[in-house]
């Protein structure tokens, strides 16, 4: 990266300073001394959830990654609450995010590469006019066909200021808590939720487990998921970005996934993309094998029998993957017509299930092996 720092973007810097002082210092002190009205708390909650969901279910999973299709009322609602996030228009956000995925960790291309430092990934990339922060609209040609996206893009800043100042002022006057409304539902809500989103670029590339891939710095972290409406399972997300889920397991905190699923039940969302179970399990096992190999190498001559077990398990893993590829090829060859045949469909499904089960059992054996070698 260029050793001489580019000029500061004064508007961004001023905005961040003002909103963070008001939101994180003034608002809590004011709240402790004077308290906030119930109306201010309600608007705070509505805008916090609304803008959070707009980013995760809308900006991120719908528009940046196209992990599902949404009906226009849902798209309109997500675009509307996007005004409250103050994270720029969908078009600009998605353009940068797609570059982040394509060139993750690359200091010269990724807009917020963690390799350039924690602060840079968190906020620094917005405070200076870095060449990597430039928007490449060629990344989002598909989104230009969405009239809701384009309308939001054209009116982004007018609507953002109008809504973010107007709504708390009108409701503040109506309920007799103007300052409380502005500080809690305006400044504190905004500063808090922006830092939570920024954590995905900083903390979720620093702290947590790499269960699916170690080809990039993205991590899975349940604590970050709590702060980011489920976006903390970032290692899974970078490995399988076309999946509408980030928290794969049912118990993993991912309100983004729950909202999308709920919308699909009432017809507002469709074509939800899920990564085949086998592919997910295969990625996990590959990581387990890699870690186990490292441990065995460290153990040196102390673990010759385990090395044999390892080799046998690894061979079995490769065989299962080859079998799965054969089933895939079979399915393609059978063509769409054959898949209409019920018997053929059931036969294929059973074969997939058997192979998934094989990997699942192997993952269990490997976990035990890992513990044994460590002990
Ligand atoms: Zn993403
Ligand atoms: Zn990332």
Notable characteristics:
single chain, mainly alpha, two-stranded antiparallel ribbon, 14 helices, binds zinc ion, about 375 residues
Could you please describe the fold and organization of this structure?
With 375 residues, the protein is mainly alpha-helical. The chain folds into 2 domains: 201 residues, no CATH class; 98 residues. Helix content is 68%, strand content 1%. The chain contains 14 helices and 2 strands. The protein has a two-stranded antiparallel sheet. Helix 12 packs antiparallel against helix 13. The mean pLDDT is 92. The structure holds zinc ion (2 copies). One zinc ion binds next to helix 10.
Strand tally, please? 2
Strand order of the largest sheet: 1-2
Total domain count = 2
How large is the radius of gyration?
A: 24 Å
